[in-house]
Model the fold of this input.
Amino acid sequence: MTAPADVRAPALSPNDDTEGKKVTTPAVPARLRAHRKVDPTYYWMIIPVLVLFALFSTVPAVIGGFFSFTNYAGYGDWKMVGLRNFQNIFTDPEILASYAFTFFFAIVATVAVNVVALLLALGLNSRIKWKTGIRGIYFIPMVLSGLIIAYVFNYLFSNTVPTIAESLGITPLATSILANEQWAWAAIVFVTVWQAAPGATIIYLAGLQSISPDVTEAASLDGAGAWRQVRSISLPLIAGYVVINIILGFKGYLGTYEIIVALTGGGPGTATQSVAMRIFSGFAGGDYSYQMANAIIFFIITLIISLLQLQVLRRREVSL
Amino acid sequence: MAAVAAAGLVLPACSGAAAGTITTIRLQQNKPEVVEYFNALIKDFESKNPDIRVVQDFNAGNWVPGLIRDSPADVVTNAYSVTVADFTRKGIFADLSDLPAAAMTDPKALELINSFGQYQDSELSALPFSLAAAGVIYNKALFSQHGVDVPTTWSEFLGACTKFQAAGLTPIYGTFKDSWTLGQPYGYASGGTVDLADFFSRMPLTAEDLKSNPDVSFGSDFKIATDKFLKILGFMQKGAGSRSYTDGNAAFAKGGAAMYMQGPWALSELTTINPDLKVGIFALPMSEDPAETKAQVTLDMTFSIVRSTPRLEAAKRFVSYLMDPAVVNAYNNKFSAFSPLKEATVNANPQISGLQPLITSGKYYLNVTNYFPPAITLNNYFQTLALNRNDKAFLTTLDDAWHRVATRNA
Done:
């Protein structure tokens, strides 16, 4: 799957070591190998991080992976149960529903965040009054914790919005959207967009500022209006940034947790439970090995998605 | 490791010559609101037992890691439920049946602990220290204003609700945005119609049980309870789905409803919001025979000693001190709870005294939520039921969820 890209650009394959080596090793000229002595400083930079990463991330992950083949409750006796946990996950309607919800949410949130962020960036990049001040205001959500934002919105959705809606006579909004099984997800997407759009906007702004003014000037001399310039000049030139935003965003929204916890707690009922929430419940629930199996499945799915996205990135000739 | 280091630092500093004879034990105490109270108890115990020092650890997160590292606390307090019973069944706790305190305790309370299963079918792994009893909190002023007496039968209760409704007053304040609050009304409805301890002892716990005993189910035994639960919800205010526990406290304290189905923990909140509020508690009658009414309790605090501790003797002395009737009664009076001892003093708190006769005569059952393993997201199911009012789907979900957990527990 990744082979063609590796042949063309072996240096771009950090995730695919074996294949990269196979292709590159014979290609390194002998004279370069003689001068391979690298300044040890670089090793001193890498090794501590490598050790810490292995100790606190890789090793626990491998241990967790091992326990997914057992019936370990988090304490006490355990025995190997083979693939039973994995089989049970595929027949557990709640786990499957949490996957469906998580992917649905990630796709909707990615689209919504990027549309909003792109519009914001285009607006903030144009020659408007008070540009710096307005930019500052739009970036405030970025420095607030998602948990705090979600608790504030929880109050707004439960109390303020229904009160206003009731006095205006809008009955569908008079009860909290968070108590509505069909629409609670919309509130979560709304808060996610509110919090995540500034980050995406910054990346789009960087992209827009990298466009040479000559190009836009030439376009306007040719008689292109604002919309035409956006469509034919800005968007194609920042396409790489769109890809970066979509990839970073999608992966982040797959792991969504704190905004849901603070807004709905997975409810109403079981309508908004994300995979991350189900996995975390295993630590308190004596369900450790079962949710570890869930985590392994989720890891493999995200890994596949990331590899696919990396392919797209390479084709787009941008690097993260 | 940390405990050993801490003990090493503490010992020479305080005892000088007698350092070698002092035993330090660790108490794992998980209720943040009583940490100070336990510090005072520990001080008193230490002055009476100069050869023992007690260190209180109030970080609940230390318990399981302590077990894994093989250095758990010597004495641990728990709100006893199916989760804690899992430790009991795995033999984590020492047998306490030979302590004098075991003989002083109400057999009914011990029965509740043992109903979750005993280690080797004979041991007593926890001693009950405090029973938190819950019932329907009612606004005394509103009851007398509308000429309503405390109901003693199910139909009297429905009559009272209808009367309040006709007067334009919300009969019961509902807060099921916080899904856990639904555990109270469902607890009353099920505890009054099902013999919970018996039912859950028949429910399958493992894949083996599932094969041998497939007939017992929520669908057959909890049908009445679920119907009555929905009847109760029908008397809650409109929009209860978007009201939280704190909203409920504020509204009820200000006279927004006649009744409120919450545990004793809400009482101090209510009187903080409105110091003039006069409330009482009654056990919700679920049948037409007043003699059948029982109170709902949780085993709010129990003591266990870790089996592997090398300081067993010191730990037993500490637990025996804590189980002294004077200590037990003082604690429960202070924290609006009930003593599980045979020789219990009557709780002086007028807010909860309505439940006293039931507790004294041993007419109580454990809240249904205590029997569910945390892997079952029971509160979310309650919320779905409250919003959709689909009792069949709810009971099927419960049975399916229970069977899934049993299947994966070998």
Confidence is low (pLDDT under 50) at residues 1-18 of chain B.
